[in-house]
Amino acid sequence: MSLKQIAFAVLTLACATVQAATLSPIEQRIVADVKAHNEQGLQLLERAVNINSGTMNHAGVRAVGALFRDQFEQLGFQTRWAEMPASVQRAGHLIATREGKQGKRLLLIGHLDTVFEKDSPVALWQRNGDRVRGQGVTDMKGGDVILIQALHALKRAGALDNTRISIIFTGDEENAGNPVEVSRADMLALAKHSDLALAFENTARNKQGGDTGTVGRRASSDWEVTVQGKQGHSSGVFSERAGYGAIYEAARILDGFRQQVIEPDLTFNPGLIAGGTGVSVEGSRAQVAGKNNIISPNASVKGDLRYLNYEQRDRAHAKMRAIVAASLPGTSASIEFHEHYPPMAPTAGNLALLKIYSQTSADAGLGEIPAFPPGERGAGDIQFVAPMLDSLDGLGATGSGTHSPDEELEISSIERATIRTALLLYRLTR
């Protein structure tokens, strides 16, 4: 053995000794158990991914739910399937609970559905060395399996008894059923009897390529601007008699938004615009008619608004309303706002929870976990309970290409995240 090899071996032994010193004996057994059963976790993930569970494929969502329900029952949880009313048009949710008197009351959140509907041409499961491509492999069946495997490790270590854990795997995270007051009622009910919420959406990578934790996510909401003008001959446009028409007024409003409402972590995107002599907008589709020589009497703009906290939302709403109200001559306009996902603000409680998670990861020799910039993550289920509980998201698998045909999982992230999760759950439930 060369001097370099000897030095490397000594360094490796020293690192292992430091790690062992920061983990208790039972925590060391939990880590060893996760590693010993990692292949079983990958097999469970393959079974789940090989079931198409696009949000509107209700049979597929229920089938994945049944697969995971069996796992929770093996772990000693009480399980039930929460059906949705027919009017909501969603498959429902898997709920698993266990009662105890020890440690924090935890609410753990995952989802069963994917963005890939039944007719998707994307392959279900394709393993290529240390990576896997497939429908929902990272978002978020990988995260579901990480949670399940962590619980199995705790059970085998005798650390699951007397814990207070509630789990909900929703069937419609990618396209929440309306009204959300109904589709998220079960989640909110569980939150009322919990102290902390953890969600297992995919782990976001920072610019340095390391794993992160999610302490904040922006709200998702909609807005719609409706504009009226005076229909007339185009030769009179800009005159006091004819005014500017609805399309010019819509353009003024949008440019006003662009110039006056911008601030960090706030976005507002006009996704649909229609204007002319006849405008009909239904959902995400519009029908319109018009002529070059007619001043447009109608225009409609629909867009989304994403914000990090309610103070930011209120500032944006006030500025947007003021811009809409300053109408060009011969026009009038109004704006309406519709809320969907509430914000998960990066609170002190969320940051404190991340600190515990980061220390757990460091103690296991997996490095510290920084916060991912909250303004860079989209909406997720945890946002419905974040206003009620200290919360942390992004505890799931690491990969790339989510919501695309290139969705891919880094296989090694399953073991890494399962170790972190098992140790975190152990420490929170002592």
Automatic annotation (TrEMBL):
Keywords: Hydrolase, Metal-binding, Signal, Zinc. Residues 215-329 form the Peptidase M20 dimerisation domain. Pfam families: M20_dimer (PF07687), Peptidase_M20 (PF01546). Its cofactor is Zn(2+). This is M20/M25/M40 family metallo-hydrolase. The keyword Zinc applies. Residues 1-20 form the signal peptide. InterPro entries: ArgE/DapE_CS, Bact_exopeptidase_dim_dom, Peptidase_M20, Peptidase_M20_dimer, Peptidase_M20A. The keyword Nucleotide-binding does not apply.
